[in-house]
Design goal:
Layout: E1 4-6, H1 11-23, E2 27-31, H2 50-57, H3 81-99, H4 106-116, E3 120-125, H5 131-134, E4 162-164, E5 167-174, E6 180-181, H6 185-192, H7 200-211, E7 222-226, H8 236-248, E8 253-257, H9 264-281, E9 291-294, H10 301-304, E10 310-312, H11 316-326, H12 334-338
Parallel strand pairs: 1-10, 2-3, 2-8, 3-4, 8-9, 9-10
Antiparallel strand pairs: 5-6, 5-7
Helix pairs in contact: 1-11, 8-9
């Protein structure tokens, strides 16, 4: 089936999409960097995005290995000391810019609204900025899938509401023992200088062995707790369990916000979710769009023509504003719906 292109002037289809969001009870949300750009955080792939800022920030010959932006987030960088230093410094600076964000975007608030009104099945994000957490959404994978999504009976999911597919900038992780720990001023300073801070857990173990007259042990370095290209997510089993649960929950709508859909793992995830939705709800010219792609740039037609129902050619926040204008009842709290 062809992908329907939707612009701000397509009033009827926008109303249909807004009505479908209102009537849906198990919505999957997929997000990329495009939902955070309006908060002031640079995205990864656009002309003025994070990748090109990296090249501008480090124009010296030592960055010649950065032939494309994703090279800075590829696990092979650890084989090059200079690239490794740039990685540490850049991630520390990125975290600093995230901490300066004063507020989340309307899209983040929309995702929170879906959770509060019992419509959100799950949000899967490629972002590492953690802005969903500022809206009170739960991001701890150890919480699991949560209770059955019966939106008429539950107010908020007690499970993990936002799956951070690429990790997060809130903590550091030891590259040797995998222990996670908090940032402090000394660790931030080391990263800014392009160095990996020593792992406190490894240091303690090494010191205790030496004090006991034994051979010392390796002390690992701390790195931002993000997942690079070519790496497995350290909590991949938990993500797999949640994904399996969401597929079996029979989702009825998926909204994809602000991502190029080029990462292989995300492609597989989106296609699996879309297949589940279409199997239950159908697809075609007489069926309301159930897989909606909101982005300023289209997805590759040859890859997504049988997956995406509608491409909404809008800024993510602009789309949210359109939905709110056309279907304000989406923002009504569950208490009112049950009254």
């Amino acid at each position: 089936m062809p992908i329907i292109t939707v612009t701000k002037s397509d009033h009827r289809i926008l109303q249909t999409i807004s009505d479908t969001i209102h009537s849906s009870r198990k919505i999957l949300v997929i997000t990329g960097a495009g939902i955070s750009t309006n908060s002031g955080i640079p995205d990864f792939r656009s002309t003025h995005g994070l990748y090109n800022q990296v090249k501008a920030r480090y124009p010296s010959a030592s960055t010649s290995n950065i032939t494309q932006g994703k090279d800075l987030f590829d696990s092979v960088l650890f084989s090059d000391p200079t690239m490794t230093s740039i990685f540490y410094t850049f991630l520390a600076e990125l975290r600093s810019s995230v901490l300066k964000v004063e507020d989340t975007t309307p899209t983040h608030k929309f995702i929170r609204t879906l959770a509060e009104t019992g419509r959100l099945l799950r949000c899967y994000t490629q972002n590492i900025d953690g802005l969903e957490g500022r809206e009170g959404l739960l991001t701890d994978l150890s919480l699991g899938k949560g209770p059955s999504n019966n939106s008429r009976k539950r107010k908020r999911c007690s499970g993990c509401q936002v799956v951070q597919l690429h990790g997060e900038l809130d903590t550091l992780r030891c590259m040797h023992c995998q222990v996670r720990c908090a940032y402090d001023d000394d660790r931030v300073a080391a990263l800014m200088e392009g160095r990996a801070p020593d792992c406190p857990s490894c240091l303690t173990k090494d010191r205790e062995r030496r004090e006991a007259g034994k051979r010392g042990t390796r002390v690992g370095g701390l790195r931002p707790n993000i997942v690079l290209y070519g790496e497995e997510h350290p909590q991949g089993d938990l993500i797999g369990s949640i994904t399996t649960s969401d597929l079996s929950a029979k989702p009825d709508l998926m909204i994809i916000f602000g991502t190029s859909l080029k990462v292989h793992g995300l492609k597989k995830l989106v296609k699996a979710f879309a297949a589940s939705i279409h199997a239950r709800k159908g697809s075609g010219p007489n069926v309301p769009p159930r897989v909606i792609f909101v982005n300023n740039q289209p997805a590759a037609y040859s890859v997504w023509k049988d997956t995406i129902d509608a491409w909404v050619d809008m800024d993510c926040d602009e789309f949210v504003a359109e939905v709110k204008k056309r279907r304000p009842a989406v923002w009504e709290r569950q208490e009112r719906l049950e009254a």
